[in-house]
Design goal:
Strand order of the largest sheet: 1-2-12-8-14-6-4-3
Largest sheet: 8 strands, mixed
Oligomer: single chain
Number of strands: 16
CATH superfamily: Cupin
Number of domains: 1
CATH architecture: Sandwich
Number of helices: 8
Helix content: 25-40%
Order of helices and strands: EHEHEHHEHEEEEEHHEEEEEEEH
Radius of gyration: 18 Å
CATH class: Mainly Beta
Length: 275
C-alpha cells in the first residue's frame, strides 16, 4: 500500500524522496508528501468497516457531527453510532470518528498489534538516524464517512497522515503565511478552527488528493481543511509530533511557538490536551 511513489506532483505540490528533501521541506511552511523510497509505511489493516465497528464501541473514541462541527461526546449522534446496527451506521451515518488512545489495541489479537513493530519503531528509528529528536511522537486514527469535511483549522503538532482506505483531499495554501501567519496565531493564543472555509482564488490553494498508501506531512500551525471522498469512508492513521528538533534546532514552524511558550510557560501544555 504505497501509491505515493508513483505520484508526479504538480508545480505547487511537494514530495520528499530523500532525507535531504525531507529536511528542505520541513524548513518551509507548505505541506508535502512522503514518498515510499524515503520511508515505507506498510502494515496490514482490517477493512475500514471493521475498524469503525471496533472503534465505535471504545469509550475513548470521539464522534463529530459534520453539521455542528464539534465533538458530540454525550449527544444523540454518539449514542446512535455506538448502538445502532453496524449496517445502518455504515449506510446512513454522517460523522467523523477519532481515537487518540490506541495502545489498548496493541495486544495480540487486536487490530493494531503490529503497529509498534511495523510503523512506530521504524519511523522513530528513521527520524533518529537522520538527526531528529522529539517530545511527542504518538499515533491516532481519523475516519470520516463519505463526503464529510473537517473544519478549517490548524494543529499544534506536525502530523504524518497515512491514508489507509477511501479518498481524502487535504487542502491548504500555497503561501500559508499570507493567510494565517504563525506569529499571529501564536500571539492570539489559539489556532483557527471554524466551519467557514476561506474564499480564495483556486491558484492559492495547495491540494493533495490522498489515496490508500499516500502519506502527507502536515506542518505545525499550517491552516488546512480536509474532505472525504463520496464513495467510501476515509480512514487515516496519523502520527502527531511535537517538540521536533533537527540536530538541536527546532523546526521552522515551531520556533515562534516555542519562543512564545518560553515567555508564557503557563500556556505551554494547554494548547492541545489530546496527547
Amino acid at each position: 500500500m504505497s501509491s505515493t511513489a508513483a505520484i508526479m506532483p504538480t508545480a505547487q505540490q511537494r514530495i520528499a524522496r530523500t532525507p535531504e528533501q525531507f529536511l528542505t521541506h520541513l524548513s518551509q511552511t507548505q505541506n508535502f508528501l512522503i514518498a515510499v523510497e524515503l520511508f515505507p509505511f506498510e502494515m496490514d489493516m482490517p477493512p475500514v468497516e471493521e475498524v469503525i465497528d471496533i472503534l465505535r464501541r471504545d469509550d475513548e473514541t470521539k464522534v463529530r457531527s459534520p453539521q455542528q462541527k464539534h465533538k458530540d461526546d454525550e449527544g444523540e449522534l454518539t449514542r446512535w453510532v455506538r448502538t445502532a446496527a453496524i449496517e445502518k451506521v455504515l449506510e446512513k451515518g454522517c460523522f467523523g470518528l477519532s481515537n487518540f488512545e490506541l495502545s489498548r489495541f496493541y495486544s495480540p489479537g487486536q487490530f493494531l498489534h503490529e503497529l509498534q513493530d511495523k510503523i512506530m519503531i521504524p519511523w522513530r528509528t528513521f527520524l533518529s538516524q537522520n538527526g531528529y529528536t522529539w517530545q511527542r511522537c504518538a499515533p491516532y486514527i481519523f475516519i470520516s464517512t463519505p463526503g464529510v469535511s473537517s473544519t478549517f483549522h490548524a494543529d499544534y503538532s506536525h502530523v504524518v497522515a497515512w491514508q489507509l482506505d477511501g479518498i481524502k483531499t487535504f487542502n491548504g495554501f500555497v503561501d500559508p503565511e499570507r493567510h494565517a501567519p504563525i506569529a499571529h496565531i501564536v500571539k492570539q493564543g489559539n489556532a483557527p478552527r471554524t466551519t467557514e472555509i476561506p474564499h480564495v482564488e483556486t491558484s492559492e490553494i495547495l491540494s493533495y488528493e490522498m489515496h490508500p498508501g499516500d502519506v502527507l506531512w502536515n506542518q505545525l500551525l499550517t491552516p488546512h481543511w480536509v474532505t472525504a471522498g463520496d464513495d467510501r469512508p476515509a480512514f487515516s492513521l496519523n502520527i502527531s509530533h511535537g517538540g521536533v528538533r533537527h540536530r538541536g534546532q527546532f523546526l521552522a514552524n515551531e520556533v515562534a511557538l516555542r519562543e512564545h511558550w518560553d515567555s508564557h510557560p503557563d500556556e505551554a501544555w494547554v494548547a492541545d490536551l489530546r496527547y
